[in-house]
Amino acid sequence: MLRKNVLTPEESALVRELVADVSRHDGVAPLDEAALLRLTPGGAGAQHFLLPQAETGAKSTGAENTGERLVGYASLLPDGTIQGAVAPAQRRRGAGAKLLTAAHAQAPQGGAWAHGALPESAAFMAKQGWVANRELLVMSADPAKARLALGDKDSATSGAVGLYLRESRGEADLELLYSLNAAAFAHHPEQGKLSLADLRQRFAQPWFSAARLLFAFRACPPQAAAGQEGPGIADEGMTPVGFVWLKEDELYVLGVHPDAQGEGVGWKLLAAALRLAVAEALPELKLYVDAANTAAVALYKKAGFQVVESHTRYVPGAQAVTSCGGAE
Question: SS3 sequence, 267-324?
Fold first, then answer.
């Protein structure tokens, strides 16, 4: 087994090929965004475990198998998150157990994500003596219907009183986003640990648009008193209380500062995200939220979002079972 801190372009291509094969077979990607970003040249910080065919004695199962394809791969992120994949034709031969053991040895307090809550994944983790301790829900809705369900009929009058929204100014707002994200997700094991470098890397992705990242401020100035929104209003003398960020067809992140929770800020931000999605004629908007975050789940359900998928985090049975209560 190869353990690498940085992948060569060739190794990265092999991992992506394996991920694509597994995604097609299982119907769900085995790696999340954070793990995929670490495959890029600028994605340092993770440990990569590669299991080549030569080490396992795996045989080619078709003409497309060149002998260079990977049997399996595992990613270990800096926060101790383990994710991995084994080629469909090479499963139940010990590759998954070998990768999980190697990755966990480097992060004994870490946990492993099984994406899609597949029965095969649950059976594998149970066989290894690992138990589920957290569930991440994937919810989806038609933005137009969700906006009506939420009651957002007029952007100038709906939402929390004394708030205004403005678009991001790109890199100029990086520090603002970092501070708000850290406060809103202080107890979240992944989102709350994003660094300035992590956020800057996301700003550099092809999908990023400053117009799809909105900030909410309390104590709006006179020109915004009627609920005016836009990037031209100055921030001086106001307190940032939240943000909402869209990525392609996903409500990527919605965060509310702890000091502003319970004031309708989340409603205002969700309504703004739905207006953006409707303006862009998106037929569907999805989001990810911890099942333990009952307040956020309730808000999304009120807007008509329904659970369409789930992901499960596992830890060794000997570890204390805990739940994440972070908000998203």
Answer: HHHHHHHHHHHHHCCCCCEEEEEECCCHHHHHHHHHCCCEEEEEEEEEEECCCCCCCC
Helix H segments across the chain? 9-26, 33-37, 53-56, 95-106, 119-127, 143-150, 174-184, 196-203, 265-279, 294-302
Check residues 261 and 18 and name the one with the higher pLDDT: 18
d(CA 222, CA 207): 34
Token pair recorded at residue 317 = 């049975």
290: pLDDT strictly greater than 90 = yes
- Strands (E) located in 53-168: 70-76, 81-86, 111-114, 130-141, 163-167
> Which among 241, 249, 294 is positioned nearest to 268, based on CA atoms?
241
Q: How far apart are CA 276 and CA 61, in angstroms?
A: 47
Cβ contacts of 262 within 8 Å, gap of 6 or more? none
Token pair in block for residue 64: 């497309």
pLDDT for residue 45: 84
**What is the pLDDT, as a whole number, of residue 160?**
54
Which domains can be identified in the chain, with CATH numbers?
2-118 (3.40.630.30), 139-308 (3.40.630.30)
d(CA 112, CA 75): 10
119-123, 178-182, 190-194, 232-236: segment of lowest average pLDDT: 232-236
